[in-house]
Amino acid sequence: AFRDAKITCLEFDDAIHGLRTSSMHCFEGPEWQHLKRGRESFAWGPVIKSDPLGRCGAALIYGLQMAILKAAQVGQSLVGEDEPTRALSSSAVRVESSYLIDLRALETNHVKDFTFVHGYIEPVLVILHEREPTWTGRISSKHHTCMISAFSISMTLKQHPVIWSAANLPHDAYQILSVPPPIGGVLVVCANSIHYHSQSTSCSLALNNFSSQPDGSPEIPKINFHVELDAAKATWLSNDIVMFSTKTGEMLLLTVVYDGRTVRRLDLMKSKASVISSVSCSYTSCAYIPFHI
Q1: RSE1/DDB1/CPSF1 first beta-propeller domain: from which residue to which, for each copy (predicted)?
Q2: Among the listed residues 151, 129, 158, the one whose alpha carbon sits nearest the alpha carbon of residue 69
């Protein structure tokens, strides 16, 4: 993706052992000027995510416009199986069509993050957003302003109903992680707490004394050491264990305790220490690959 609203889909071609462009999409120019709503500059360019089964992709452009990009071929997807003998030049997977979702019309303002989740027949897009912005100096009067909304994306009908949501999340929530199957759901990462939410259950874990609960809600479990997760990088090691690399270089392991039917609780433990990372990912037997800037 490129500023301000250009998207290019690339694929690896076995015939040439290199990348080639399969489709390009541009939401700029006079016909798309209304999407900017009078603004001339934006803090960041498009943010793109893909459905786990590769049925579509989503790009957040101009802050509050979500472009849904549908995979073209029947039986194919944006994330295909490994077929080393098949030449992609003869059977390419490309984006067929796209349509826009106006998040402002859905009262989904101040988008912080979004992701696709596992375990649904149709693609489900979960968006982390803030209803009324606040900041640290005003949390005594306005706090827990974030929420998540799950939209079921019907690419044929171009409809996107809300199928579930969760409100009263901390104002410092900044990231959501899609939990791999068979668990499903999402983890909401905040500076002082972690929250799990799905269509049927939810649980939370406090990370330090700065964590707070909404008025009238029961107290959430708390770990026996102090840690902060603002600016942390995360990667899944298995379907129930995610590793965090904190801003101090400390490595933490979060376990999603799942009994086969529902998520019971979240457990966090210290692991090792490393350099301060800008990216973390997992690859086969390697647990952690830090990139230090």
Answers
A1: 45-268
A2: 158
- The mean pLDDT of 132-137, rounded to a whole number, is 82
- Other CB atoms within 10 A of residue 229 CB: 24
Whether residue 100 contacts residue 124, with contact meaning beta carbons closer than 8 Å, is answered with no
- Give residue 83's pLDDT: 42
Query: pTM to 2 decimals?
Result: 0.84
Alpha-carbon distance of 236 to 253, in angstroms, equals 10
| Terminal C-alpha separation, the chain | 22
Is the CATH code 2.130.10.10 the one for domain 107-273? yes
Q: Is 129 exposed, middle or buried (0-12, 13-18, 19+ CB in 10 A)?
A: buried
241 pLDDT above the threshold of 90: yes
Instruction: Please list the residues that pair with 58 across neighbouring strands.
Output: 49, 68
Over residues 97-102, mean pLDDT: 86
Domain ranges of the chain: 107-273
Q: Which residues pair with 146 in a beta bridge?
A: 130, 169
Neighbours of 10 (CB within 10 A): 11
What distance in Å separates the CA atoms of residue 115 and residue 265, rounded to the nearest whole number? 22
Tens of pLDDT, residues 75-93: 455 554 444 433 433 444 5
Q: What is the pLDDT of residue 9?
A: 86
Question: Which of the two residues, 48 and 290, has the higher pLDDT score?
Answer: 48
